[in-house]
Write a sequence for this structure.
């Protein structure tokens, strides 16, 4: 059977109500003619490369030539892989960590950035930070994408080693979709593969 539809549907009795507009938008999204709107929370220790990674995600024309560390938080909006994304880049400095919880409810997924070239202390702190965050009720079941960043450096650990170090196979991730990938926020290598996976889970 062939499905026929009008690109400009007619609604009787006052045109498109908000409810009908919502149904129409959902229908267009289902058949690939409208972009989904999703919010991502990008977190991790300070100096892990979060802001550089977010800058790499943006359209080329919108990228900053010089990236400075985020103070508090920043919000970026752009389209990527048929999604209209709101990306909330949170500072990893200790004095701003309490701000993270303000955005848990509105985000549909978490992107956690680990400095793969850091030492054992960096991995330990990342593990503690990640599990404390994932234990929050408002993040239950949210998809998790972990980037092992700075993989271009000779001292960088592989994605499998980072996964073990932050205990992605533990209870905190048992009931959520998760993925880890090595990347370089400076060169862009590995980032798109991770984001493509995440978009399929949103």
């Amino acid at each position: 059977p062939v499905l026929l539809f009008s690109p400009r549907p007619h609604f009787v009795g006052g045109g498109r109500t908000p409810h009908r507009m919502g149904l129409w938008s959902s229908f267009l999204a289902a058949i690939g003619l409208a972009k989904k709107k999703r919010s991502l929370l990008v977190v991790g220790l300070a100096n892990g490369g979060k802001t550089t990674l977010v800058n790499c995600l943006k359209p080329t024309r919108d990228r900053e030539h010089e990236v400075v560390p985020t103070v508090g938080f920043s919000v970026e909006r752009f389209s990527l892989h048929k999604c209209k994304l709101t990306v909330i880049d949170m500072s990893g400095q200790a004095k701003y960590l309490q701000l993270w919880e303000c955005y848990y409810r509105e985000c549909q997924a978490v992107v956690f950035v680990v400095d793969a070239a850091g030492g054992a202390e960096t991995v330990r702190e990342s593990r503690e930070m990640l599990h404390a965050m994932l234990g929050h009720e408002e993040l239950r079941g949210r998809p998790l994408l972990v980037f092992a960043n700075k993989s271009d450096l000779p001292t960088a650990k592989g994605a499998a080693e980072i996964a073990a170090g932050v205990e992605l196979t533990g209870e905190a991730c048992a009931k959520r979709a998760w993925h880890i990938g090595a990347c370089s926020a400076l060169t862009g290598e590995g980032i798109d593969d991770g984001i493509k996976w995440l978009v399929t889970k949103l």
Q: What stands out?
A: The chain has five helices and six strands. The longest helix spans residues 120-134. Residues 1-15 have pLDDT under 50 and may be disordered.
